[in-house]
Amino acid sequence: DQVERIGIDVFLQTAEEARTCPRLFVFDLDSTLIQAEVIDELAKLAGVGDRVSSITERAMRGEIDFRAALAERVALLAGLEVSRLAELQRTIRFSTGVETLMKSLRLAGCTTVVVSGGFGFFARCAQQRLGFGYLFCNELQVVDGKLTGALVGPRVDAERKRTALFEVAHIEGISPSHILAVGDGANDIPMLAEAAVGVAYRAKPVVRASARYRLTFATLDSLLYLLD
Among this protein's residues, is 157 annotated catalytic? Predict the structure, then answer.
């Protein structure tokens, strides 16, 4: 904390930890890889921005259950035309350093994963542009070109984020000791706790308090220093 007060991020590791190079990198999407909470931006288009952003903030601080908060917010989007999603998609910006980070991880042969409580419409666009290997996210239901206010398929919540780490590690034959995870909200806490290196990135206070590693000032491409 004293180091952070002068605006510096420091990762302290044992000699053994420093020799264990991460090979599986797992990221949250909203407010981590991208500079937005997509559901809040959709809510603005639907005319319910203040109502939804208030729920989002409480959920990310861990004050209310994420799964219940997600359902409540998605319901408020009912009737929004899908064409507005494409409109919003063009305005989303990546966090500083993300493109350099992803390109470098691909060149290093690392496996990259996005596990997001956000939505596939936006996550697949990010996947196409950044080239990460695996994607777990929620899917908005669309009928007659409009959002119904419901989700389809399995839900991605805090527990699914946690289990996704080990699912991909098993598929790729990567030891748990080589997993790095990055997130900012309360629903990221379980996956950060399970990862060998769990990084709270410009995170909510409850996440910062629970994480051993924090990136508060440096950009995401600074994670490349952890590679051999």
Answer: no
Catalytic residue (choose from 28, 157, 184, 221): 28
CA distance 3 to 127: 35
Q: Containing H/E element for 41?
A: helix 38-46
Unique residue bearing structure tokens 């805090």:
158
Q: Which of 30, 40, 184, 188 is catalytic?
A: 30
| Predicted TM-score of the model (pTM) | 0.93
Write down the mean pLDDT value for the chain: 93
- At 139 the pLDDT is 97
Q: Based on the residue annotation, tell me whether 30 is a catalytic residue of this protein.
A: yes
DSSP secondary structure of 62-109: TSS-HHHHHHHHHHTTTT-BHHHHHHHHTT--BPTTHHHHHHHHHHTT
Q: Which two tokens stand for residue 54?
A: 């208030």
